[in-house]
Amino acid sequence: MLFALALAAGSGAASIAQGLDEAATGNLPLKHVEDVPLPGRASRFDYESYDPGRHLLFIAHLGDSEVIVFDTLASRVVASIPGISAVHGVLAVPELSRVFASATGTNEVVAIDEHTLRITARTPGGIYPDGMAYAPDARRLFVSDETGKTETVIDVPGNRRIATIPLDGEVGNSQYDPVTRHIFVNVQTRRQLAEIDPATNTVVSRTDLPGAKGNHGLLIVPESRIALIACEDNDRLLVLDMRAMKIVGAFDVGGAPDVLAFDPALRMAYVAGEAGVVSMFSVGAPGVRKIGDGRVGPNAHVVTVDAQTHRSWFPLKDVDGRPVLRIMAPR
């Protein structure tokens, strides 16, 4: 049974002491730390990405067409970067001091300098650019073109599109695997996972995903050689053995699962869903084990975890009529 969790008062005026939409963590090992107000309207958020070296969290505020920059040490918003139309994906690449954002409203990928927090380039991103993955050896950015049924490849040093890879189905999230040095992409209408070689920009394999329906979210845990695949149309999490490339497990999760995150120190995976329910899993040597489910907040479909502090961040579009960043921590 879910139980209401008392909200912890923040250390300053930036924190919200209480709200109508409180977290109810159920059997999750989480506590609610604080809610920090975010700028703009109570409108949809999409992906977020964290640069741990700079302690900066980049949040795509889709409804306001801007990227919000949050300082996790100071626990405050330090900038808003406007002019990124209907921004969906956001990806920080710390070694480049650059952040990429997919502007679905203008079908572009926007490059942002982390030092100045200013836009430095715009590159064509396909028909509906969404999630992104970076292949460091090839220095190429791979962009999920969701409705265009392709993967757009961008040469990062030159800020230019160099390839469009047909995937023959609606495209979900893309992830880089540091073991194979390949890009893996959900092809959700084909219920497949496509593998792309960044050196040649070609699809080298396709893996059928039995039990998948709307396989959109994707998380690769390289040290365990597994991939976690969130299926938004049947509320399932699939576990893929990346050595055998076979499904070895499946779990029920909260409604319409979307974004996944992993805490490598605690070996815990988070699955955030549109229904506001977060499901958590232990990822260890014996395999994947479900910890439980809990309601984190309305439309809590985006999550990022700090591997050092183990805090998790959930941008929520509407808590008492305003957007907030809900911060959780292990208890």
UniProtKB/TrEMBL annotation:
Matches recorded under SUPFAM superfamilies: C-terminal (heme d1) domain of cytochrome cd1-nitrite reductase
Name assigned to this protein: YncE family protein
Taxonomy, superkingdom: Bacteria
